[in-house]
Structures are given as structure tokens and as C-alpha cells.
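Quick one before lunch.
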Amino acid sequence: MVMASTQKELSVLLVFVQASSGVDGAASLDAGDSKGLLSLLKDRALSGVIKRAQFAIPPLSLMLLASVDVPGVRQEFCDLRFDRLPLERHWDLVGIGVQTGAARPAFELAARFRARGTKVVLGGPYVTIFPERCREHADVLAIGEADDLWKELLEDLRAGQLRPEYRQGVFPDLSQERPVSKSMLDIGSYFTTNVVQTTRGCPFSCDFCSVHVMNGHRLRHRPVDAVVREVERFLEQDRRIFFFLDDTVNADDAYAGELFSRLAPLKISWVGQATTALGENPALLETFARSGCGALLVGIESLADESNHAHHKFHNPATRQSRCIKAIREAGICVYGSFIYGLDGDTGAMASTIEEFIEETGIDVPGINLLRPIPGTGVFDRLAGEGRLLHDRDDHEAFRFSWAQEMLYLPKQMSLEEFVPSYTGLTSRVFTLKHAVRRAMNAPTLRSAVLMFNSLYVHMYGLSRRDLLKQLAGMGSGLVF
Ligand code: B12
Ligand code: SF4
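Model of the cobalamin complex:
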């Protein structure tokens, strides 16, 4: 192996690749199959707005890696949502994050760099779950949570001794402080750069989720002091809203209570993801509201317990949802309620149940998702075993559509001919401009954000209906999907 010169500073580029589908894009937009020039221009313009404005927060994964300090190695960051790929410069190593829905563009990018002789390391969810499918696309794989691996890898790069694989043995100990820097970011490009994670891992096993597969079943906490110091430091550079990226910010009531009481004097505003159990804990709810919580995304999934149970979600009984959501809203916190219609216990009656529930609870932003069987999850394997996937199970690229653009599986209780019109009918009733305005007017706070989300969803669910009905018509005419 060639030893690298001790004088020369090595340069490493970290690249964030956007999924080819998802909340920030839609099949119709990307395929450009709008009718007429005006419609095409409108869709293109909206696509730009959606891609840039909706969720333009920086990827915490690459911020963490770029903050690892190894003498003699300089790290830079390229977010393909905003930045041009700096192909003209020399890079000693390029690191690319791979999510399942973005595996193809990530591999194509890796190939471009490797064709120029640049070494590429791949890491992230898809690499962690399917390392063997990534091996041929990279010089180096980083498998698992890379907080500690990355330092070892950069030191090996420095020593000219890169190995083909770095694998996380035990989960990183989050009680160690790893200060996150923002020096690599163009702060102005983002809606906010205040992204913070306080815990990792999830004790639950919902079969449609990758989190417990990647991050394990034990909840690991960062020390409260370390999070408070991070928030204080972040505030010095960016005073905008904070996103707590934990999958469940109230996974541990006692920890969350202490943390957000400590954050309250900082007068931040924040949003996060929580379980509706919060509505049954008035003290924590009050602490969240007092510490500046403006909105919480809650995973309701199904309003029928048999559906949730069929997908191994046992901790969120349907009976408590209405009461808890109302309590959260009464505390002055907006609720983004995320449903999945088409779970294994759902019949066609669920459409009107969801619609009435949204009306009754006053959910500020509803999200009505289709079940996405993501390769590597329990539901993917089960549906494959039951012959219910609409694509070959080995064709992971086919499962990239993560927004409600395409049916990827056969529902259990309904045929596609029943289910698709039931779903599109539901979204056409729930996502109207009239409802968007009403929800914004009734929102306990953040009214303009509630209006923006609902208006975008009027547009996005319109595209989803077009795509789904097109798919259904194609299936009827014998087209293979
Ligand atoms: C915040 C978030 C979002 C945000 C913001 C994304 C952003 N700009 O960062 C928004 C809302 C936009 C979003 C959207 C989507 N998301 Co999301 N999201 C998350 C969430 C909750 C946190 C991500 C995070 O920051 N984690 C913390 C960091 C530290 O962990 P990490 O990303 O895994 O990174 C570690 C390792 O993976 C590794 N690593 C990661 N990248 C790299 C790169 C290199 C080079 C190396 C060496 C290592 C490495 O090292 C890191 C440190 O240990 C995760 C769940 C989770 N707990 O991770 C889901 C998650 C990542 N999302 C998921 C999905 C499916 C989506 C969507 C497709 C949803 C949809 N229906 O549209 C879209 C696609 C977005 C896109 N890429 O275009 C899935 C991905 C599943 C998979 N197998 O790929 C997850 C895991 C949720 C789940 N329930 O399964 N998401
Ligand atoms: S959906 Fe939420 S509660 Fe269920 S396993 Fe995933 S992170 Fe945990």
C-alpha cells in the first residue's frame, strides 16, 4: 500500500443525494407528462418550489461526519438539492449517503467519480441493510452508524491504508459528546439548519419501518447537557426553528421532560415527531408547549387496532387517538397526523372513518399515505412471501416510489379496483383549497405553515391521483407494472 504524504492535506467530499421520489417530488413531475405547455411550466415551477422549500433541512448524517476532525484531512459538503457537483476539483475520497429510494442515483454518482479515478465510500440506510448489493458500486463500504467508523476511516485514508469495508460492531455510545459543526453548510440555502437528534433506536417493531432494523431496539440517549449546549451553539449561528429528528421525541417521558424543561429558557421554537401518548401526559405536554413546540408529526397509521396489530404496531391503540390529538391541539401545538390507508385489516369503510376522524379532531395537516413496502423491512418480506408485491422482490429500484404515486402491493381486504378509487376519492375530499384555508384558520399556531403544507398537498395529492388512476387503467389494459 502507498503511504500518503504527511505534508499534503487530503480533501474529502460528502454528497447528499435526493431520492428520485418522495415528499419532495412526484412521478408526474419528474416524467414531465403534463398536458400542454402552460401545465408543463406550472408543474416544473411547482416542482422546483416543492423540492427546495418543503423540507430543505440539511442531512444530519453528513453534518455529523463532516464534523469529525482528523488532522490533515479537509472535508467539504455538497447537497445536490442546491449545489453543483464539483467535478473539476481533485478529491481524495468521496462519501455518498444512500437511502433505499435513492440507491440508483447514488450508484450512478459513484460510477461518475470512480470513472475519474476517485475513490468512493458509500454509507447510510441502504448500505447498512444491503451491503452486498452496494459492494460493486464502491471502493469502500461503511456499514451501520458511522459516527465512530468515520474517524477510523479518515485516519486510514490519511495513512494510505483504506480497507474495503468498515462495519459498526456495537452501536455508538451516544453518551460521548460529538460536537456537530455547521461550518460546512451554506446556511442560507436551507429552511433552517437547526437539526438535532436526542435519541436513537426504537423499542418497537412496526413492520413497515427501517429504524429498528438499522438503529436497534434499545433507545440510546444523548446527555441532556450535551443537547442543551448544542442548541445554544446552534442558536448563535441560526435563530430559526429547530427540528428534533428523533423518531419519537417523547419515547422516554422522563428524559424528554428534563430536556425540554432545560431548553424552555432558550425561547426556541421547535417541531418534532411524537406518539399521541403525549396527550395523556399533561405535565409533559405543558413542558413541550412551554419550550416552544409548534407542531408534532404523529404516526396514527390505522384507526383500526387489527390493522396496526397486523403490522406489529401495538403501542398506539386507536381508541386513545382522538382524545390525545385534541389534548395536544388544546395545548397550542399543531398536529400533523400521518395515516396509512390500505393496511392489512383495512376495508373500504376505513376511507370515511379517516375522513370523519380528520374533521372531528381538527388535525391541522393530514397526511394519508399508502403502505410502502421498503426492501429490508418485515412487511416487504411478508408481502413477497404472500405473492402480494407488484414488482419482482429483487428489483429494489422498482420500490423507490415512496410518495403516493404508485401501488406497490395488493391490499389484503380489497382488490386494486376497489382500493385505488377509494383512496383517490378520500384524498380528493380531504385535500381541497377550502379545507386548506379552514385548517390554517383553525390551527392553534404556525398558521402560514399549515396553509403552505395543506396547499402543497392539494397539488401533490392531485398528482398522486393522476398517477394511481393511470396505473390502474394500465393494469386493466394488460400493461405490466
Ligand atoms: C429527518 C428524516 C427525513 C427528513 C429530512 C431528510 C434530510 N434532509 O435529512 C424528510 C422529512 C425530508 C425525510 C424524507 C424522506 N424520508 Co426520512 N427520515 C428522517 C429520519 C426521521 C431522520 C434522519 C436522520 O437525520 N437520522 C440521523 C442520522 C444521524 O442517522 P442516519 O441518517 O441513519 O446516518 C447514520 C448512518 O446511516 C450512516 N450514514 C448515513 N449517511 C452516510 C454517508 C456516508 C458516506 C457514510 C460513511 C455513512 C453514512 O452514518 C450516520 C451516522 O451514524 C429518518 C429516521 C432515522 N431515525 O434515521 C427517516 C428515514 C431516513 N426516512 C425514510 C424515508 C423512507 C423517507 C422518504 C422516502 C419518505 C417519503 N415517503 O417520502 C423521504 C425521502 C427523502 C429524500 N432522501 O429525498 C426512511 C429510509 C428507509 C430506507 N431504508 O432508506 C427512514 C429510515 C425512516 C423509516 N421509518 O424507515 N426524512
Ligand atoms: S414506526 Fe416509529 S414506533 Fe414504529 S418501529 Fe418505526 S420508529 Fe419505532
